[in-house]
Amino acid sequence: MNFDIAMERLKSEGFKRTPSREAILRLLEREDRYLSAGDVRKALADEHPKMSQDTVYRNLSSFSEMKILEETELGGERKFRMHCDRHGHHHHFICMECGRTEELDVCPMEQVSRALPSFVIDDHKFEVYGQCPDCRTAG
């Protein structure tokens, strides 16, 4: 998802266009990786010194509910990134160091369905965690 589409979705959901919302969405579009509310607040502190941590967190949560952002938990902390533009079913590799993501075209659900033949599976989420090549060589 890009900034313009995200702003249109906000408008259609009855949210006002504010400098804080614009800044958060522009940052997430630019970064293209998972960030925590603290990461977002820190990145925007110079440009928006009066933006509170609560404002950041509330907006991130709202954006996630509207499917503007994707959300995951890394190291016990909620993290967010812009929703993928890619259509079709896929999953992600997520770098535990920098939050970078890579799309995966594989899905283990066929194997899971075979292992649980009498169960009805309503949904799933599959993420692979590790270190990206840049973080691995930097360490």
Structure description:
With 139 residues, this protein is of the alpha+beta class. 41% of the residues lie in helices and 19% in strands. The strands form two sheets. A three-stranded antiparallel sheet has the order 1-3-2. Helix 3 crosses helix 4. Keywords: Cytoplasm, DNA-binding, Iron, Metal-binding, Repressor, Transcription, Transcription regulation, Zinc.
What is the element layout, followed by pairings?
Blueprint: H1 3-12, H2 19-31, E1 35-36, H3 37-44, H4 53-65, E2 69-74, E3 77-82, E4 91-95, E5 101-104, H5 109-115, E6 127-130, H6 133-138
Parallel strand pairs: 4-6
Antiparallel strand pairs: 1-3, 2-3, 4-5
Helix pairs in contact: 3-4
Quick rundown:
The chain is of the alpha+beta class.
Q: Indicate the CATH architecture of the largest domain.
A: Orthogonal Bundle
* Count of domain modules: 2
| CATH fold-level name of the largest domain | Arc Repressor Mutant, subunit A
Intertermini distance: 32 Å
The strand line-up of the biggest sheet is 1-3-2
* Quaternary organization: single chain
Show unreliable segments.
Answer: none
- The averaged pLDDT comes out at 91
| Main sheet properties | 3 strands, antiparallel
Give me the number of helical elements.
6
Binding site for Fe cation: 89, 110, 124
Organism: Bhargavaea cecembensis DSE10
Cofactor: Zn(2+); Mn(2+); Fe(2+)
Binding site for Zn(2+): 95, 98, 132, 135
